[in-house]
Specification:
3 domains, 4% strand, mainly alpha, Fumarase C, Chain A, domain 2, Fumarase C, Chain B, domain 1, single chain, two-stranded parallel ribbon, 498 residues, elongated
Length: 498
């Protein structure tokens, strides 16, 4: 059997430049698909033997050869050759070299590289989704721990990148917990869409052989079958874009955390100090402590968005069926996985080691009229006036005292009591001081989802309980995959031993 298995109709060899152009980086990405293609081959050929399309003698020879390749892959001895284009042809050729062209030539029966690569990619994506979910859980757990430690720790909430209202650091942490938990849910949904069997679609129209697609689905641990064969082949980029959409949202959430922390570590803000383990220096300025880790996470959010855009750009306007354009989808997939995993890992470590500068935060909370909304609420409660009237009174005080940059209780009391009607009671100094106390203001926000320590504690316990249930789902998926592949390998050994 010649080295190129699919050029039987051609009189001339493929031009070397064309060979390199067609392969691109595909062969490099396919290295990660080697074990999945072997599992794929195990399942497909066991199924063909079950329906009588491959003899008992031939299936033994093929499985023995595939096991040898699997062993060599584990020892890092199996290498892919570019001239064979992809992982599928490399493995088929390696089997044929061991068992001869007569038996090896049966390997591609009742399938195409179109459904073969779809199966490999879904097996690969399935594992990667689980690993990324585990990393998300680590990050969420770190944020939950930080929240528990900082139920009463004052922090500052922003709108328009301007100081807005006091919150707790626990409230900041829990905002990101909820966003990342939604990311986990989206990945679970994508996992179940990915976890359907494409094998058996062949090129686009299935096969005339009486294949058992349900059996291969069971052997490979798929939850179901993607049925329409044309849809299977046409949808190659759909599941990938679904996954990369999830990754992009995750990276946007990580970028938001990164930007908050970058601002928080500046001299102008000074709320947060990064551990030296997660900081870099300057080549010229000895005093610098730079948040390069966070800046790269922020930048890689753009990289991820670029990968998603690339996928949509490739898929846009393609006709039904397979097109060689689909090959270019591998690069954004593998690039995205290489981007998101280290980003999750390093941000988890960084968050676990940050230090909050509580006195700085407390001092800043006295400035910039941050407690203005509390004073508005005070006037509404005590004088029974409309919100807009109270709002205008406090805004007027701020307008007339801009140089002070903070509320002075005595001056404020005098101003307010001059403004009241004769039938309204005086605003006391104690009332103003209570309204201006940031922690007391936060405690008053005890409604569902509010930043009060009591409500934060409830949310922490609730999110922990939800996270445990999510962990159980993910663990069950992981166990099932491990069990399926272990059973598949045992079945291979049983068939060989017959």
């Amino acid at each position: 059997m010649g080295k190129n298995l699919i050029r039987g109709r051609f009189k001339e060899n493929l031009d070397k430049l064309v060979e390199k152009f067609l392969a691109g980086k595909d062969i490099l990405y396919d290295i990660q698909l080697i074990p999945y293609d072997i599992y794929n081959n195990f399942a497909h050929h066991i199924m063909l033997n079950k329906i009588g399309a491959i003899s008992d003698e031939d299936i033994k020879a093929i499985l023995i050869a595939l096991k040898e390749i699997y062993k060599d892959w584990g020892l890092k001895k199996f290498r892919l050759k570019q001239e064979l284009e992809d992982v599928h042809m490399n493995i088929e050729k390696a089997v044929a070299d061991q068992v001869g062209p007569f038996i090896g030539g049966r390997m591609h029966l009742a399938r195409s590289r179109n459904d073969q690569i779809l199966t490999d990619l879904r097996l690969f994506m399935r594992d990667e989704i689980i690993e990324i979910q585990d990393l998300l859980i680590d990050l969420i757990s770190t944020l939950l721990k930080k929240a528990e430690e900082n139920l009463d720790t004052l922090y500052i909430g922003y709108t328009h990148t301007q100081q807005a209202q006091p919150i707790t650091f626990a409230h900041w942490c829990m905002a990101h917990v909820d966003a990342l938990y939604r990311d986990l849910e989206r990945l679970i949904q994508t996992y179940y869409r990915v976890n359907t069997n494409p094998l058996g679609a062949a090129a686009i129209a299935g096969t005339s052989w009486p294949i058992d697609r349900q059996y291969t689905a069971e052997l490979l641990g798929f939850e179901g079958i993607q049925e329409n064969t044309l849809d299977v082949v046409s949808s190659r980029g759909e599941f990938l874009s679904d996954l990369l959409s999830n990754f992009t949202i995750i990276m946007i959430h990580l970028g938001r955390i990164a930007e908050d922390l970058i601002l928080g570590t500046t001299s102008e803000f000074g709320y947060i100090t990064l551990s030296d383990r997660y900081s870099t220096g300057s080549s010229i300025m000895p005093h610098k402590k730079n948040p390069d880790v966070l800046e790269l996470i922020r930048a890689r959010t753009g990289v991820m968005l670029g990968n998603l855009t690339k996928v949509f750009g490739i898929l846009k306007g393609l006709p039904s069926g397979y097109n060689r354009d689909h090959q270019e989808l591998k690069e954004p997939l593998f690039s995205s996985i290489e981007t998101i995993k280290p980003s999750l890992k390093v941000l988890t470590g960084l968050l676990a080691t940050i230090k909050l500068n509580k006195e700085v935060i407390k001092r800043i909370l006295q400035n910039n009229f941050l407690m203005a909304t509390e004073l508005v609420d005070l006037l509404i409660k005590e004088w029974n006036i409309p919100f807009r009237t109270a709002y205008t009174l406090i805004a007027t005080y701020i307008k007339e005292n801009p140089e002070k940059n903070e509320f002075h209780p005595e001056t404020l009391k005098e101003f307010l009591n001059k403004s009241k009607n004769s039938n309204q009671k005086n605003i006391t100094l104690e009332m103003i001081q209570s309204a201006l106390d940031p922690l007391e203001a936060i405690k008053r926000r005890n409604h569902i989802g509010g930043p009060s320590p009591q409500e934060e504690q409830r949310m922490i316990l609730d999110r922990k309980e939800k996270l445990e249930k999510m962990k159980e789902k993910i663990l069950n998926n992981k166990k099932k995959i491990n069990q399926v592949f272990s059973q598949l390998l045992r079945l291979v050994d049983t068939i060989i031993a017959k």
